[in-house]
Amino acid sequence: MNRTTTGVVLAVGTAIISGLAIFLNSFAVKQLSDAAVFTTLKNGIAAVALLAVVGLLMARRPRRPLPALGRRSIVGLTVIGIVGGSVPFLLFFTGLAMASAPSAAFIHKTLFIWVALLAVPFLGERLGWLQIGAMGALVASQLLITPPNGVIWGVGETMIAAATLLWSVEVVLAKKLMARVDPLVVGAGRLGIGLVLLLGYLGVTGKLGLIGLLTLEQWSWVLVTGVVLAGYVGTWLAALQRAPATVVTSVLVLGAPITALLDVVARGTVPAATPLIGHALIVGAAALLIVVAMRRAPANPRPTARA
Q: Residue 221 and residue 38: Cα distance in Å, rounded?
């Protein structure tokens, strides 16, 4: 497989992990009294897991160690840790407590739109009419799955929108950074630097002491969701390094049908006809984007340099 095809396959894998993660998080977040504490600890477990993988890879290939990070790469990792690994999480979960559920769900699902708008001028990606049409279908699918009934706009919605925009900026920055830095290092840096800031937030808000009050069951949920998050971040960045950002973020929307399927298996509740049509539309639109991306992929693409 060429790099783009590999990236698309990884993106599909990331979407599957995303669907599982959303399903598990819906249970896990209810087991902890504070969403910020849950997010901080989960990100911490994921950071440790990715660092462990990096360490294992370095131990297995001592003659080919990971290149040392230069000042420019360190600055890039720090910015990604702020823009993607900490501030948007705080904005999102704080806004989620104030925003209406339909508004929050719809705003967050527009990530692929903002990535597309940034990827064209800053990453040089091209969008054909088929891709634009597929993205339009993805927007329509979200309206079918989460109808805009009762959607309002307030401080909470503004915070969620700001978080979504920051994550879209992170996609562009990470794509550029991974031209010279291994995706696993970027992922570990993103979560590790973000963890420092999240812990600082818990300290300032007086929530740091809540960590010591967690039960064994609560820690089990943190551990499971943290490992899943590590898998998500690792495959997502590996996909983003190899395939166009517009394709990767659009394919991630496939996580919604995966979550819905898991809900059916676990709870035995089948979605109504309209959401089912929306999920089917997601699958069709994502398939079209994948086919277009693979057809456009060069047969022998130039390998990405790392430093």
A: 9
pTM of structure: 0.87
Q: Which residues of 239-276 are buried (b: 16+ CB within 10 A; e: fewer)?
A: bbbbbbbbbbbbbbbbbbbbbbebbeeeeeeebeeebe
What's the CA gap between 131 and 281, in Å, rounded? 14
3-state secondary structure 209-275: HHHHHCCHHHHHHHHHHHHHHHHHHHHHHHHHHHCCHHHHHHHHHHHHHHHHHHHHHHHCCCCCHHH
What is the C-alpha separation between 292 and 297, in angstroms, rounded? 9
* Closest by Cα among 186, 184, 183, 180 to 306: 180
- Both structure tokens of 115: 């990535």
Q: Dihedral through CA 298, CA 299, CA 300, CA 305, nearest 10? A: 40
- pLDDT of the chain, 307 residues: tens digit per residue: 688 889 999 999 999 999 898 888 878 877 887 888 888 999 999 999 998 888 887 777 665 556 667 888 889 999 999 999 888 888 887 787 677 656 676 787 889 999 999 999 999 998 888 889 999 999 999 888 877 665 677 888 899 899 999 999 999 999 999 988 889 889 988 999 989 989 999 999 999 999 999 999 999 999 999 999 999 999 999 999 999 999 999 999 998 889 888 888 887 877 788 889 999 999 999 999 888 888 876 655 444 444 4
